[in-house]
Design brief:
The protein is built from three helices and nine strands. It is α+β, with helices and mostly antiparallel strands. It has a five-stranded mixed beta sheet with strand order 3-9-8-5-6, with no helix packed on it. Strands 2-1-4-7 form a four-stranded mixed beta sheet, with no helix packed on it. A hairpin with a 4-residue loop joins strand 5 (72-76) and strand 6. Helix 2 (14-25) runs antiparallel to helix 3 (128-164). The model has no long low-confidence stretch (mean pLDDT 80).
Length: 165
Protein backbone atom coordinates (compact mmCIF):
# COMPACT_ATOMS: atom_id res chain seq x y z
CA UNK A 1 0.00 0.00 0.00
CA UNK A 2 2.83 2.41 0.89
CA UNK A 3 4.55 1.80 -2.46
CA UNK A 4 1.22 2.40 -4.20
CA UNK A 5 0.82 5.72 -2.37
CA UNK A 6 4.41 6.65 -3.18
CA UNK A 7 3.78 6.00 -6.86
CA UNK A 8 0.47 7.95 -6.78
CA UNK A 9 0.69 10.59 -4.03
CA UNK A 10 -2.74 11.96 -4.95
CA UNK A 11 -4.33 8.83 -3.48
CA UNK A 12 -3.19 10.02 -0.05
CA UNK A 13 -5.47 13.07 -0.41
CA UNK A 14 -8.70 11.05 -0.55
CA UNK A 15 -9.12 10.69 3.25
CA UNK A 16 -8.49 14.43 3.70
CA UNK A 17 -11.05 15.28 1.04
CA UNK A 18 -13.58 13.15 2.90
CA UNK A 19 -12.72 14.99 6.16
CA UNK A 20 -13.28 18.36 4.46
CA UNK A 21 -16.68 17.22 3.14
CA UNK A 22 -17.71 15.95 6.58
CA UNK A 23 -16.65 19.24 8.21
CA UNK A 24 -18.68 21.23 5.67
CA UNK A 25 -21.80 19.08 5.52
CA UNK A 26 -22.19 17.73 9.05
CA UNK A 27 -25.19 19.27 10.83
CA UNK A 28 -23.93 20.95 13.97
CA UNK A 29 -25.99 22.26 16.88
CA UNK A 30 -26.20 26.02 16.83
CA UNK A 31 -25.42 26.32 13.12
CA UNK A 32 -28.88 27.60 12.21
CA UNK A 33 -29.39 31.10 10.83
CA UNK A 34 -29.95 33.89 13.31
CA UNK A 35 -33.55 34.08 14.47
CA UNK A 36 -35.80 36.44 16.33
CA UNK A 37 -37.10 34.48 19.31
CA UNK A 38 -39.76 35.33 21.84
CA UNK A 39 -39.54 33.58 25.22
CA UNK A 40 -41.82 33.70 28.23
CA UNK A 41 -40.37 33.49 31.74
CA UNK A 42 -42.63 33.46 34.79
CA UNK A 43 -41.37 34.38 38.25
CA UNK A 44 -42.99 32.81 41.31
CA UNK A 45 -41.64 32.30 44.82
CA UNK A 46 -38.86 31.05 44.55
CA UNK A 47 -38.18 29.99 40.99
CA UNK A 48 -38.25 31.04 37.37
CA UNK A 49 -40.18 28.94 34.85
CA UNK A 50 -38.44 27.81 32.73
CA UNK A 51 -35.29 27.63 34.82
CA UNK A 52 -33.06 27.16 31.78
CA UNK A 53 -33.32 28.73 28.32
CA UNK A 54 -31.12 27.91 25.33
CA UNK A 55 -30.62 30.18 22.30
CA UNK A 56 -28.07 30.51 19.50
CA UNK A 57 -25.38 33.15 19.32
CA UNK A 58 -26.59 36.07 17.20
CA UNK A 59 -30.29 35.49 17.87
CA UNK A 60 -32.42 38.51 18.73
CA UNK A 61 -34.25 37.61 21.93
CA UNK A 62 -37.41 39.13 23.38
CA UNK A 63 -38.25 37.83 26.85
CA UNK A 64 -41.75 38.45 28.18
CA UNK A 65 -41.59 38.47 31.98
CA UNK A 66 -44.52 37.86 34.32
CA UNK A 67 -44.89 37.43 38.08
CA UNK A 68 -47.45 35.01 39.50
CA UNK A 69 -47.51 36.00 43.16
CA UNK A 70 -45.49 38.97 44.45
CA UNK A 71 -43.22 41.64 43.01
CA UNK A 72 -40.05 40.11 41.56
CA UNK A 73 -37.10 41.38 39.62
CA UNK A 74 -35.16 40.09 36.66
CA UNK A 75 -31.44 40.70 36.20
CA UNK A 76 -29.44 39.01 33.42
CA UNK A 77 -25.74 38.65 34.27
CA UNK A 78 -23.33 39.52 31.48
CA UNK A 79 -25.87 41.69 29.68
CA UNK A 80 -26.77 44.09 32.49
CA UNK A 81 -30.50 43.88 31.79
CA UNK A 82 -32.82 44.56 34.72
CA UNK A 83 -36.62 44.80 35.06
CA UNK A 84 -39.07 45.00 37.96
CA UNK A 85 -41.96 42.57 37.50
CA UNK A 86 -45.32 43.37 39.11
CA UNK A 87 -48.04 40.67 39.21
CA UNK A 88 -50.53 41.13 36.38
CA UNK A 89 -48.19 43.39 34.33
CA UNK A 90 -45.98 41.83 31.65
CA UNK A 91 -42.54 43.32 31.05
CA UNK A 92 -40.45 42.83 27.91
CA UNK A 93 -36.68 42.69 27.58
CA UNK A 94 -35.11 42.65 24.10
CA UNK A 95 -31.43 42.04 23.34
CA UNK A 96 -29.10 40.25 20.93
CA UNK A 97 -27.39 37.14 22.33
CA UNK A 98 -23.98 38.15 20.99
CA UNK A 99 -21.75 36.27 23.47
CA UNK A 100 -21.58 32.48 23.77
CA UNK A 101 -21.66 30.97 27.25
CA UNK A 102 -23.88 30.47 30.27
CA UNK A 103 -25.45 33.50 31.91
CA UNK A 104 -27.47 33.52 35.12
CA UNK A 105 -30.70 35.40 35.50
CA UNK A 106 -31.80 36.14 39.02
CA UNK A 107 -34.48 37.89 40.99
CA UNK A 108 -33.43 41.49 41.59
CA UNK A 109 -36.11 42.35 44.21
CA UNK A 110 -36.14 40.80 47.67
CA UNK A 111 -39.17 38.52 47.51
CA UNK A 112 -38.86 36.37 50.62
CA UNK A 113 -36.52 34.16 52.64
CA UNK A 114 -35.38 32.02 49.66
CA UNK A 115 -34.83 35.02 47.36
CA UNK A 116 -31.05 34.40 46.97
CA UNK A 117 -31.80 30.97 45.43
CA UNK A 118 -34.14 32.30 42.74
CA UNK A 119 -31.78 31.81 39.80
CA UNK A 120 -32.18 30.66 36.19
CA UNK A 121 -29.75 30.10 33.33
CA UNK A 122 -29.52 31.43 29.78
CA UNK A 123 -27.30 29.27 27.54
CA UNK A 124 -26.04 30.89 24.34
CA UNK A 125 -24.69 28.25 21.94
CA UNK A 126 -21.41 29.12 20.22
CA UNK A 127 -20.71 29.89 16.59
CA UNK A 128 -20.56 26.45 14.90
CA UNK A 129 -19.74 27.68 11.34
CA UNK A 130 -16.50 29.13 12.71
CA UNK A 131 -15.46 25.71 14.02
CA UNK A 132 -16.43 24.08 10.69
CA UNK A 133 -14.10 26.49 8.92
CA UNK A 134 -11.29 25.67 11.36
CA UNK A 135 -11.84 21.94 10.66
CA UNK A 136 -11.66 22.50 6.89
CA UNK A 137 -8.44 24.54 7.17
CA UNK A 138 -6.74 21.97 9.43
CA UNK A 139 -7.80 19.06 7.18
CA UNK A 140 -6.54 20.87 4.09
CA UNK A 141 -3.22 21.70 5.76
CA UNK A 142 -2.75 18.09 6.90
CA UNK A 143 -3.61 16.85 3.40
CA UNK A 144 -1.08 19.24 1.85
CA UNK A 145 1.66 18.03 4.19
CA UNK A 146 0.91 14.36 3.45
CA UNK A 147 0.86 15.06 -0.29
CA UNK A 148 4.19 16.87 -0.10
CA UNK A 149 5.69 14.03 1.94
CA UNK A 150 4.56 11.34 -0.52
CA UNK A 151 5.62 13.48 -3.51
CA UNK A 152 9.09 13.79 -1.98
CA UNK A 153 9.23 10.04 -1.41
CA UNK A 154 8.22 9.45 -5.02
CA UNK A 155 11.13 11.63 -6.23
CA UNK A 156 13.54 9.72 -3.96
CA UNK A 157 12.35 6.38 -5.37
CA UNK A 158 12.76 7.66 -8.95
CA UNK A 159 16.31 8.86 -8.17
CA UNK A 160 17.18 5.47 -6.64
CA UNK A 161 15.76 3.67 -9.71
CA UNK A 162 17.81 5.92 -12.04
CA UNK A 163 20.96 5.23 -10.08
CA UNK A 164 20.56 1.46 -10.34
CA UNK A 165 19.83 1.36 -14.09
Amino acid sequence: MLSRLSAHPRLALIPFGVLVLVALLAPLPGSAAHETRTLHIDAAQFAFTPGRVQVNQGDRITITLTASDVVHGFYLDGYGLERRIVPGVAQEVTFTADRPGKFRYRCAVSCGPLHPFMVGELVVAGNAPYWCAIGVVLSAAAGMLVYMWFSGQNKNIQEINRGTS
